[in-house]
Amino acid sequence: MWKLIVLFSIVTASPIGFSGVDLNPINQFAFKLLNNVYAFQDNFGQKNIAISPVSVWSLFALLAEGSTGDTFIELMRELRLPNDLRGTQDLHSALLNVLRSNDGDVILKGQSAMFADQTLNIHQEFCQSANYYKTDVYFVDPSNSTRLAEDINYYICVATEGRIREAVKAKHLEQLRMILIDALYFKASWTHPFDPTQTKEEAFYNSQGKTIGAVNMMYHKAPHNTGDSNLIGAQIIEMTYGKSEQFAMLILLPFDGMPLSRLLDNLATQPLDWLSEFKSGGNLPEIDCYIPRFKISAQTDLIPPLQYTGIQRIFDREKAELPGVSDSPLYVSKTLQNVEIEVTEEGTIAAASTVVGLEDRILGQRFEANKEFVFVVMDRSSNLVLFSGVYAQPEIV
């Protein structure tokens, strides 16, 4: 059985809506994956995570078109794919429309590619599907893994505008027949920037109220949607990007005394009504907002979390069924995601590769992210989650 590697290169972003297409199935997959990634990484003491679930969904949805049998059933079920090909293609078209934004305040773009062994007979139908989803197809000589790694890293470096320079090493590419890559780049300025002169070092706490470190806490007073969701057990604030305010980052603070793991479990299991129900509507109140300046750089092996979700056979060299891709038996041997996200007073820059004592000024509402929280970058018009993560290990940046 030949190996296939899946890589994701992501720079965080927020999406543009696509009328008539329900994107909630992708969000359901997104929050389940986030929960499983956190559970997996927590086993190794890694509490700060960032992923681009939409990127994972996109590439495995493409592989679903070349799968059969139980492999196909697992992918259809866990990716929440429609029962008809047209429905799946509509979802992909919606994502492609999301990944087109360059209005000065917000840059969002995506690229994907397939690097296949030049001796591998890729079925024409699968190449057509890849082209339909705007995936570049390259046939390469994999015998020189060093040169191939250089080519892939160059592709990802260009796609992420230099944020990700070494997504893969030559050792990752040995005995591989096909490599799928997805790259996203996101750079955005806040609609209401934070004043750097107000940033100050402050304590950061865990869910039990114990001090676990310190952060550079940013501050501003600005109009924001904010509210509580009893459905998931969190206080939520929405901070928008750009003049159009089409994109936003949500910060989700678990209710006092509630473990972060329970909030993540609620996100994975509860209906998505909370995405709109927490918003106040009408004239937004001025909020005293305290958010840490933070940066996360992480590499995640996504195979165990995806296996937790119920996608298993595609990673099994004996059981994977991908005859629609090639006559040669293939299975997915690696699924890597390198993510870098930076949140500052000016806005957000993020990248990922897979081969997210001030004076007391409060007279009104206050939102203070001084304990473990979940963050989500999304499109406000469709509520599509492009990027999500957890911040639970504080550091001064």
TrEMBL record:
Q: Which CDD domains match?
A: serpin77Ba-like_insects
Q: Domain of life of the organism in this record?
A: Eukaryota
User: What InterPro entries does UniProt report for this protein, alphabetically?
Assistant: Serpin_dom (IPR023796), Serpin_fam (IPR000215), Serpin_sf (IPR036186), Serpin_sf_1 (IPR042178), Serpin_sf_2 (IPR042185)
Q: Which UniProt keywords apply?
A: Protease inhibitor, Serine protease inhibitor
GO function terms (MF aspect): serine-type endopeptidase inhibitor activity
Gene Ontology CC annotation, any one: extracellular space
Start and end residues of each Serpin domain: 31-394
Similarity-based family: Belongs to the serpin family.
Name of the protein this chain belongs to: Serpin domain-containing protein
What organism is this sequence from?
Leptidea sinapis
